[in-house]
Design goal:
Strand order of the largest sheet: 1-2
Structural class: mainly alpha
Mean pLDDT: 79
Number of helices: 7
Shape: elongated
Number of strands: 2
Radius of gyration: 25 Å
Largest sheet: 2 strands, antiparallel
Order of helices and strands: HHEEHHHHH
Strand content: 5-15%
Length: about 130
């Protein structure tokens, strides 16, 4: 049988998570980014009124702790994706960002001809490298 924890119990177990409102925001962001759904329950708040609350498993609490531990260095979105296993490294793909930037900068330089005017505009020709035709 799985144990479930409410908002206040979850906050007590996760260091770095300080309020119910923060937990609710994280829950929404986790659902949006990863598609993970949390256990729902209804609690009676009045004679005829009920409120929907979400419950968290021990696995959810472990992932929330990972997010709390890494959000300072990665940012919340990347920390959520890393904790859910949807992105490989805890560096947040910094190497891949550099590669994308290099491609973005060099792609226009790789296209071009070999006339003199284009050689001024294309640093690859100035360096003696042949652009991709």
């Amino acid at each position: 049988m799985t144990n479930y924890f409410d908002y206040h119990q979850t906050i007590k177990q996760v260091s770095g998570l300080n309020s119910v409102s923060t937990l609710k925001k994280w829950r929404l962001k986790i659902e949006h980014l990863t598609g993970h759904t949390f256990q729902e329950d209804r609690i009676q708040t009045g004679k005829r009124s009920y409120s929907k609350v979400f419950l968290f498993t021990t696995d959810d609490i472990e992932k929330l702790q990972q997010i709390a531990d890494t959000k300072g260095s990665l940012g919340l979105d990347r920390a959520i994706l890393w904790a859910s296993g949807q992105h490989g490294s805890p560096q947040g793909g910094r190497g891949s960002k550099r590669a994308r930037l290099a491609i973005k900068i060099s792609a226009p330089l790789l296209i071009g001809g070999t006339n003199v005017h284009e050689s001024r505009a294309n640093p690859l020709i100035r360096l003696g490298l042949k652009p991709i035709s």
